[in-house]
# Entry
Amino acid sequence: MKLDNPFKQQYAAYKWRLHRNVSLYLVLLMCLLGAMGWAEQQGLSRNLIGPIFLFSTVMIYAVIGIMGRTTNADEYYVAGRRIPAFYNGMATAADWMSAASFISLAGALYLQGFSGAGGQAGGLAYVMGWTGGFCLVALLIAPHLRAMNLYTLPDFFSQRYGGRWPRLIAAWAAILCSFTYVVAQIYGIGLIASRLTGVQFEIGILLGLGGVLLCSFLGGMRAITWTQVAQYIILLIAFLIPVSWLAYKQLGSPWAPIAYGTQLPKIADLEQKLISDPSEIAVRNEFLRRADLLKARLENVEAALINERKMLEKQLTDLKLQNAEFSVIAQARRDLLALPKNAAVAKDVWQKAMLENYERAKPLGGMPLHGQAFQGNPDGTEQEREAFNQSRINFVALIFCLMAGTAGLPHLLTRFYTVPDQAEARLSVAWSLFFIAILYLSAPAFAVLVKFEVMNNLVGSPFTELPHWLAQWSRVDSSLVEVTDVNLDGVLQFGELKLSADMIMLASPELAGLPYVISGLVAAGGFAAALSTADGLLLTISNAFVHDMRLGTKNGVQTDEGRVILSKFALLAVAMSAAFVASWKPAEILALVSASFSLAASAFFPGMVMGIFWKNASRKGVVLGMLAGLGLTVSYMLFNAHAVKLALQIPLNTGLFLGIQPISAGILGVPVGFFAIWAGSLLWPDPQVLPESPLATPENHYPGL
# Structure
């Protein structure tokens, strides 16, 4: 689209108004933060700070959503195609900085180090894969998609290949990968909302869901874009304050990405001391004893369950006869009630507990050495060499899936339909990389600084002097924090502390000793990260149902305005379904997000690349390629899922091809998809390249000819 002079003048005035409004918003945000800090100093209760932050930020997003309300199709689907590259880059970064990036990435680096743990690739794979994916988007995808003036990603398959099936398969694939992704975001929303307000996790999900719907329901992409700009500013400030403060506290400089390398040798020394510490060895031996006890129970589950119930009942009776303290009797009663109801449940529970105890019986609680490049040892035993090779394979596999998945995520690619032209699309990707790099360069530094704080200051503290935030996070969800005096010495050992990747970032201000108002800000930042991505994902799913699958067309919904209204109600239904699934807590945020990238990579990446750069790619070929690639990826994930293997009584370490973990299954699906499209196009070529496709001429395949 070539911009004429009058339009350029109008566009320049439009951008000036945007700069003014965003500057005003930034000033108001700083005033809110300052007012909350002053109120805390004046004695404002911590129980009020969290809800105030939650309410204030959601109201900001709600106001933007109401001001951006529209029923115009162009505004609802692609924000009128007039978003400047700078702000589209900021909105894309917010769309990208999901709960996985903001909440879990630093936590993954803390727990897995650079090398990874338990067969999983290290946290650096996420940084490299997600960043590299944007390079693929800039070089291969974004400018070509913008040239086609589409609304959704399935529109590309409809226009390029024609027919009904490419569009329908693309729509169902968009629903599958986006729904998996949005469940992770809503889980993060519930986690943060419950921590901010003190309500139950399920109620927190519903509170956060209200914020999502206020942003996306009324204005679609128009409202979502400006909401995401506001959310990016909040999450950027929320991320940089604690990491800069920790860097200043430990190193005397707030420039964490530059200075944190100083702490890596200190962490290596602390790790060696902890490995050889007698108290830590005592903790590991206790976990090993517990694991062996559970292993013995699993040899005859029914008999062990009966004996365990009899023992607990006798213990409860004895305590009552001895007139023991009420708290001791209550704990014995809770232990009895927590006993599995039958042998099948007991087997599942005890097997999981056994594996967890064996893991925590390893040095450093099963965590790898932070600075180690890969797991295992290339010069060690056969088992160590195998672990080294599998670690390298999984590292590369995860990077590949995240890169290809980034280039195929429907909600992300739709953002590049919102800019005025192809040049702005390329510039928008560059701005996106800049805004993302600010956080991605800080995340590895943040993980190192938190680990040093835990090892150097928290470990060795008496249990009576532990900070209150440990107990508070444990009340939100016992799986987030576990602190137990395993060796009964009254002092916290590193092996006695178990932190989830999903809470390390959120708890960092309290760990660093910052005012509680910063904890509220960080939680609001995580809330903004989850909301921003959830908005785009829910819009993508509802558009797939209504726009791409033509839902409602047979019932008389023919106008653009009618389809927009129907999309809004589809969005509401999808949001409620995702909240229901998220309440089950199916997996950690990072695992769910990684799986969605593999699904997107196998479903979309081969078809888009072949459709853009190979004019002979045919309709039947792409249908075969999408079904083959996505089918293989889903099958590999399901067959190797932890729950499925336990249900089928299959050993957990079997069935993996070259040791590749299920979240990286896309590395198998993508090559199969490319091959199937190539073979299918040769076997069933189209009669001619579709004349209505904007990619039908050599000039569009190779810009510049």
